[in-house]
Write a structure and sequence with these properties.
The chain is α/β, with parallel strands linked by helices. 35% of the residues lie in helices and 16% in strands. The longest helix has 26 residues.
């Protein structure tokens, strides 16, 4: 077995990267599947989210499109544009509304230059409150199911 190059230690928190006057939240590959990461960058004041990935590890499979789909959700949830940058997958600009623009195909050499405007950014319920809506919806569903069960149980006694 080969040796590992470098002496790496996992970080303890995510930090915004400043590029000029733009604040970027950068997350890597499968981190796009975790909404809390993009949300934390948004709450910390990111102007843009950037997802960097190497999607070539499985070849030209559905994984490339699935990773792209993840970042579309993150853009809409947080009201932020996302720059998805890959060395072998689908590179694209995703608007805060979830539109995929200027996408490349997988396994092609391409160069993209995108202008970032903070005027596009929006505050969303998810970026402000997180999974509170999901928790509320779950609680309502449990109450409705419990009430239905209770009502049927009382009705069967009569």
């Amino acid at each position: 077995m080969g040796t590992i190059v470098g002496d790496f230690t996992p970080g303890t928190k995510y930090k915004l990267m400043k590029v000029g006057d733009v604040r970027a939240g950068v997350f890597i590959c499968i981190e796009s599947a975790y909404p809390s990461i993009a949300r934390s960058f948004t709450r910390d004041g990111s102007d843009v989210l950037i997802n960097i990935s190497n999607d070539g590890y499985l070849g030209p499979t559905a994984v490339m499109r699935q990773h792209l789909a993840n970042v579309v959700f993150r853009a809409v949830e947080n009201g932020r544009p996302i720059l998805r940058v890959t060395n072998s997958g689908i590179t694209a600009y995703i608007t805060p509304g979830g539109q995929v623009k200027d996408a490349t195909e997988g396994f092609q050499t391409a160069l993209r230059v995108w202008r970032i405007s903070r005027n596009e950014n929006a505050s969303t319920l998810y970026s402000r409150r997180g999974d509170l809506f999901v928790a509320f919806s779950t609680a309502i569903s449990v109450l409705v199911l419990a009430a239905t069960f209770w009502r049927r149980k009382l009705g069967s006694r009569g």
